[in-house]
Design brief:
- The chain has five helices and 14 strands.
- It has helices spanning 3-6, 15-25, 44-48, 52-55, 122-129, and strands spanning 62-65, 71-75, 84-88, 104-108, 111-114, 155-157, 169-174, 179-184, 192-202, 205-214, 220-222, 229-234, 237-242, 245-250.
- The strands form four sheets. The chain has a five-stranded antiparallel sheet with strand order 1-2-3-4-5, with no helix packed on it.
- The radius of gyration is 20 Å and the shape is globular.
Length: 256
């Protein structure tokens, strides 16, 4: 049925369709256990399925997805070794929100290097913290590692949290290569007069540039969550390794 209105017969003739058929046949997956509710999204794998030979030219490599929680996605191609980056905007006070304004994920060489841990089991943390649905700055919600700022690939100023009522917004976006997305994070950080994050995707890499205007002495922490091991550290160059692949991260020599 999905293949007909979408004009995509590839949906019916790929391993993805076979995978969905197996998931749909396993009735035990419908049992109301913690986190099992996410399996309701399984039908979407049919829509996400892409045949690069037939569909690749029709689907943009870089897009700004607007809405309550804006997201920018950028990729160099549809093959498994392509570079892919995702930048997240939005507010921590959004429904089920995290303190992840400006957070990013990064894939390259068939490996995910910058990770997002996803959601936590609400039943488990409610037993410990009680009401986690209040989103004020002093709310217990932000003590949860997966929900607070500590677990996300964003900035921390003076060791503090992002402002729950603040909001990261997409200031500008260019889809053509080299693709560029600029996020304004200022309202998330009361310790600064201005905070922007620019993500630029090139054919052979990804540049992430943060501009912070703040009082002298403001402490800035740059974070990236990764399962990779540090293979080599020399000067301002860090080499990460996992699954037989390496990724080189180069930081500016000095902040100005």
């Amino acid at each position: 049925w999905l293949a007909r209105p979408l004009g995509r017969p590839v949906i019916q003739a790929t391993p993805t369709a076979e995978l969905y058929a197996r998931l749909a046949a396993d009735r035990t997956l419908l049992e109301p256990e913690p986190r099992r509710s996410f399996l309701r999204l399984n039908p979407l794998i049919l829509l996400w399925q892409l045949d690069p030979a037939k569909d690749g030219a029709k689907v943009p490599l870089c897009r700004e997805l607007k809405g309550k929680v804006p997201v920018v996605v950028q990729r160099t191609g549809w093959d498994k070794n392509a570079w892919f980056a995702g930048l997240k905007a939005g507010s921590p006070s959004a429904p089920h929100g995290h303190m992840d304004g400006g957070s990013f994920v990064l894939d390259a060489k068939g490996v995910r290097w910058a990770w997002d841990l996803g959601s936590e089991d609400y039943n488990k943390i409610e037993k410990t913290l009680g009401d986690i649905w209040v989103a004020t700055i002093d709310a217990p919600r932000w003590k949860v590692f997966r929900l607070g700022v500590a677990s996300h690939n964003t900035l921390v100023l003076n060791g503090g949290l992002q402002q729950p009522e603040g909001e990261a917004v997409v200031k500008s976006f260019k889809a053509e290569m080299p693709s560029e997305a600029v996020l304004n994070l200022t309202s998330l950080y009361p310790a600064a007069q201005e905070v922007t994050r620019t993500g630029s995707l090139r054919a052979d890499g990804y540049d992430l540039v943060d501009r912070i205007v703040a009082k002298l002495g403001t402490k800035v922490r740059w974070q990236m969550l990764t399962p990779a091991k540090v293979a080599k550290a020399e000067g301002n160059v860090l080499t990460l390794g996992q699954e037989g692949q390496t990724l080189t991260i180069t930081a500016p020599q000095a902040a100005k």
